[in-house]
Amino acid sequence: QVQLVESGGGLVQAGGSLRLSCAASGRTFSRCNMGWFRQAPGKEREFVGGITWSGSSTYYTESVKGRFTISRDNAKNTVYLQMNSLRPEDTAVYYCAATLQIDYSSNYAWPRVYPYWGQGTQVSVSS
Length: 127
Prior knowledge:
Low-confidence stretches: none
Mean pLDDT: 96
């Protein structure tokens, strides 16, 4: 069992930066592949980025490549999402999620792969 708590959201102007954190409890965190998703009002939840349990591989949706960076610190049971050059279209509730999925490289973008989810943190970007 893994419990996840996101923090770091807020209101920022376009072009600004935020760093989201996701703190995990549970002994299996270091073996979990982690994902960040977001959901804007009236839209489906979409994949933002993912990182393997070791941190050796990261994955991003096209719209955030070069602007967002996902990282993790297994000693602190925390995964991060550094968001730079934010745009109004990045406005959404951001969720972190965890999975012990073995074939992660083929499935990282699918919400159904992740059994554990945080409660979400709001990110609002003004123009």
